[in-house]
Amino acid sequence: MNQAEILERIREIFQENFEIEPSRVTPEAHLFEELDLDSIDAVDLAIKLQELTGRRIKPEEFKSVRTVGDVIAAVESLLAPQA
User: Fold this and answer.
1) Chain centroid to CA 32: how far?
2) 3-79, what's its fold?
3) Is the pLDDT score of 2 beyond 70?
4) What is the pLDDT of residues 27-52, one digit of tens each?
5) How far apart are CA 54 and CA 6, in angstroms?
6) What is the dihedral of CA 9, 15, 18, 24, to 10 degrees?
7) What are the C-alpha distances in Å from 79 to residues 10, 22, 26, 42, 63?
8) Closest by alpha carbon to 20, among 80, 68, 72?
9) Which pTM was predicted?
10) Which residues, at least 6 apart from 11, have a Cβ–Cβ distance to it below 8 Å?
11) Which of 22, 37, 51, 61 is the most buried (most CB within 10 A)?
């Protein structure tokens, strides 16, 4: 999955779960300030990303996620072959 495909899936997740217009979900968009997610939404997002990737997200890794671009990077690292 490339970055554009990941962004498209993230947009679908945001629309289905948080009722956020896909056009607002850009790599630069800040999850908490611009997209109005709260900590419970962040947990829901982490669960959806686990479903998407089939891999568990470590809470300490997800704490540094602030923007949609950070989410894309996290998904990319989860999808990368494990050493």
Assistant:
1) 12
2) 1.10.1200
3) yes
4) 999 999 999 999 899 999 999 999 99
5) 14
6) 90
7) 14, 23, 20, 20, 19
8) 68
9) 0.89
10) 22, 25
11) 37
Is the sign of the CA dihedral 47, 70, 19, 43 positive or negative? positive
Q: What is the DSSP string of the chain?
A: --HHHHHHHHHHHHHHHH---GGG--TT-BTTTTS---HHHHHHHHHHHHHHHSSPPPHHHHTT--BHHHHHHHHHHHHSPP-
Report how far residue 67's alpha carbon sits from residue 27's, in angstroms, rounded to the nearest whole number. Answer: 7
